[in-house]
């Protein structure tokens, strides 16, 4: 595969002039035409990822270098997500660097006193961050993508679109930090937050106020109970009842590989980039993907104003992480399926949308390409759960998920500890819940470690079976 930068800039300019649009990448497969001296290239513009939509119709720039034939023999389809993950473009790099350089600079010198160049100050924009954002735009097929310092700052930037008197509808099973930020907003601003069961379309519908609802904020699957919201139906009914309201989905659990919430009707999809997108727990990041330009412009204004754009080095790391996203998630999900089956066959109540026993498996699979790699289960006894968690050796006791390493945690003590105990109880979040975030290790090692931990915690068999054994 060749990239645009493999060709002399003058040729790139000529192609761009011919097409009347900026080229981000040029792919080629040399010598696959009958005429061995000619090469056929697929040109990818900023406008599209679809090779078939480009019709350069036989551009002959030079017999020895670039000939752009109409690519009839190339697949008339969009590139797959795994391909899009690795195809990072960096147009205009004078050295054709294979990996996007880190522009570790706060400011950019200008050649004019009255006109700014493409970049002036890293809070407003930085080439490394821009490369990451355009990469995400192609991957997530959105009008604009933004990368910010954390998942929480992504939500913070979005929530700043709300005005005094607005109402927000959110789930009653959701990440603890999200609950904390919503509670803060509710307590300090004149904004009402309704927490409803987002597995019920009727419950969401009942909470809508045609004039006041500003956001419907969904997690699907939820963290940590893996409940599913019908994003399609909810988006349609919210837009119908409340044309000014925005449907926002925290898609961290699925990542852009398994689900595209904008395609399902949402207006904004955001992620904790700290999780699957990065994949290695070596950075914090947030991603906001926006469907419409008007909303995107406002979000950019907020990000620039508050200064939460992702730093150049972290942008570089995230760009690198995304290249292996598809591969990592495939393995993580395979492992998760086996772990979920093992736990269920051992008698535990397991929450995982890939299991037939999950009441919303069908709905989930109608929206997503897989069940992901996070699951949770209950043991019936808090201290037993604690013993299991502490007995694991391969599974690390840690908050977060999406890392290549497998993690085990107790949400009520850890990721969701910021939700007051009485609220957790009212929302039926079990104290004994164990959450597993499955990594890429050998499945035998994950299973063995978990089995040993269950054995040592004397909970390999759930209470009912165990009683029978003892009797
Ligand atoms: C579902 C979900 N959304 C958002 C966040 C916030 O992301 P971050 O930790 O990157 O701020 C988290 C975890 O922290 C999460 O689990
Ligand atoms: N101490 C942190 C806990 C972060 S939880 C991270 C992640 N979202 C998860 O679900 O594990 C805090 O108070 O935010």
From TrEMBL:
<keyword id="KW-0028">Amino-acid biosynthesis</keyword>
<dbReference type="InterPro" id="IPR015424">
    <property type="entry name" value="PyrdxlP-dep_Trfase"/>
</dbReference>
<dbReference type="GO" id="GO:0071266">
    <property type="term" value="P:'de novo' L-methionine biosynthetic process"/>
</dbReference>
<comment type="pathway">
    <text>Amino-acid biosynthesis; L-methionine biosynthesis via de novo pathway; L-homocysteine from L-cystathionine: step 1/1.</text>
</comment>
<keyword id="KW-0663">Pyridoxal phosphate</keyword>
<dbReference type="GO" id="GO:0019346">
    <property type="term" value="P:transsulfuration"/>
</dbReference>
<dbReference type="GO" id="GO:0047804">
    <property type="term" value="F:cysteine-S-conjugate beta-lyase activity"/>
</dbReference>
<dbReference type="InterPro" id="IPR000277">
    <property type="entry name" value="Cys/Met-Metab_PyrdxlP-dep_enz"/>
</dbReference>
<dbReference type="GO" id="GO:0030170">
    <property type="term" value="F:pyridoxal phosphate binding"/>
</dbReference>
<dbReference type="InterPro" id="IPR015422">
    <property type="entry name" value="PyrdxlP-dep_Trfase_small"/>
</dbReference>
<dbReference type="InterPro" id="IPR015421">
    <property type="entry name" value="PyrdxlP-dep_Trfase_major"/>
</dbReference>
<comment type="similarity">
    <text>Belongs to the trans-sulfuration enzymes family.</text>
</comment>
<dbReference type="Pfam" id="PF01053">
    <property type="entry name" value="Cys_Met_Meta_PP"/>
</dbReference>
<keyword id="KW-0486">Methionine biosynthesis</keyword>
<dbReference type="InterPro" id="IPR006238">
    <property type="entry name" value="Cys_b_lyase_euk"/>
</dbReference>
<dbReference type="InterPro" id="IPR054542">
    <property type="entry name" value="Cys_met_metab_PP"/>
</dbReference>
<protein>
    <recommendedName>
        <fullName>Cystathionine beta-lyase</fullName>
        <ecNumber>4.4.1.13</ecNumber>
    </recommendedName>
</protein>
<keyword id="KW-0456">Lyase</keyword>
<dbReference type="GO" id="GO:0005777">
    <property type="term" value="C:peroxisome"/>
</dbReference>
